[in-house]
Write a structure and sequence with these properties.
With 341 residues, the chain is an alpha+beta fold. It contains nine helices and 14 strands. Helix content is 40%, strand content 22%. Strands 1, 5, 6, 7, 8, 9, 10, 11 and 12 form a nine-stranded mixed β-sheet that branches. Strands 2-4-3 form a three-stranded antiparallel β-sheet, with no helix packed on it. The mean pLDDT is 92.
Length: 341
């Protein structure tokens, strides 16, 4: 495998994602996130990352936030990604999606290290594209948040006093939402910033989100749109823990990149199986490890003949009916044609 092969494989993941829709969707959500992949040897481009306190790779995985489908992925060195790098990847991905879906609305979502001038500039000047990113706090943002935080502190004190008067459990936290326009010195224009002013027993917990969305209320932007990116973290966990994307123990970087793509391809197969074949079954929402244990790691007797191979399952197999349903449905899928291009 060389770099061109790996690039074509990442394109193939994106092409499969597009082909999984029978017609262009009205809207999609691109969830971007990096995850640490600890290394334990002399792997190429494995660097020390201070945030994770380890030598690692830092691959980028992109999922569709509404369906959980994997869009594409790439292995990258363990250093923190720059805004220019993230912007370059987004430019290529958005151009690819636009060739197939020119009218689909795309929402790009990620945590605070994607809220860089380069990424925001890429998204700000494209039609039918919006973004919502976490935003790291600073002195200017905290100054804007202070009046709302003071009100949240009073609210929390009142709720706590009321709970104590009625011998009830005091609230864990109290939160208020607000918005204001904010423009960092490196931005070309100010953007809408959502503030979650949360006060807990341990102290204040302000959070900020920057977005190009104008219509939704601040509370909806934070709770329903931004916090929903937690699903992406669950999908990454499935790729890492259930499908072993962190087995990047080869010496060369290209070999490790291929291993990551193999795990991502396994996730694509799992998602297709769960979406199309396991609907209306107990495994409709199962994680890959559950599907593997239930359907694949099943004891069977194998008998080989000249023209066929028979698998005899034990009569007491608890998933016999489910296996029969799955194999019957899979047998209806036509075999793909040979692509020699």
């Amino acid at each position: 495998m060389d770099r061109k092969d790996l690039y074509r494989l990442t394109q193939a993941l994106g092409a499969h994602f597009v082909a999984s829709y029978p017609e262009p969707p009205a809207a999609i959500v691109l969830d971007l996130d990096h995850t640490d992949d600890p290394t334990h040897g002399q792997q190429e481009f494995a660097f020390y990352n201070h945030y994770y306190k380890n030598y690692c790779y830092l691959p980028l995985l992109i999922f569709e936030g509404l369906s959980g489908a994997l869009v594409t992925a790439c292995l990258r060195p363990g250093t923190r990604p720059t805004g220019a790098e993230n912007a370059m990847i987004l430019v290529r991905l958005l151009a690819f999606l636009r060739r197939h879906w020119p009218r689909t609305h795309i929402l790009v979502r990620g945590d605070s290290h994607f809220a860089t001038p380069e990424v925001i500039e890429v998204l700000a000047h494209r039609h039918r594209i919006d973004f919502v990113f976490g935003l790291a706090g600073n002195t200017v943002l905290l100054r804007h948040a202070e009046p709302v935080l003071q009100e949240a502190r009073r609210l929390h004190q009142q709720r706590t006093a009321l709970a104590q008067a009625h011998h009830a459990r005091p609230p864990d936290s109290s939160r208020l939402y607000a918005e204001f326009a904010y423009g960092a010195a490196s931005w070309t224009q100010p953007w809408r910033v959502i503030l979650k002013a949360e006060v807990m027993a341990a102290g204040d917990n302000p959070r900020f989100v920057v977005t190009s969305l104008a219509a939704p209320t601040p509370q909806r932007v934070y709770e329903e749109i931004y916090c929903a990116r937690g699903t992406c973290e669950n999908n990454i966990k499935a790729v890492k823990c259930d499908l072993s994307s962190d087995r990047t123990s080869a010496t060369t970087f290209l070999a490790n990149a291929m291993r990551l793509l193999l795990s991502c391809a396994a996730y694509v197969l799992h998602h297709a199986l769960r979406t199309h074949t396991l609907q209306q079954t107990p495994l409709a929402q199962a994680q890959p490890s559950t599907v593997i244990l239930s359907l694949f790691k099943v004891a069977a007797q194998i008998k080989q003949y000249k023209d066929r191979i028979l698998l005899h399952l034990p009569s007491s197999c608890p998933v016999k009916a489910l296996l029969h349903r799955v194999t019957a449905l899979l047998s209806l899928v036509p075999l793909p044609g040979l692509d020699t291009s």
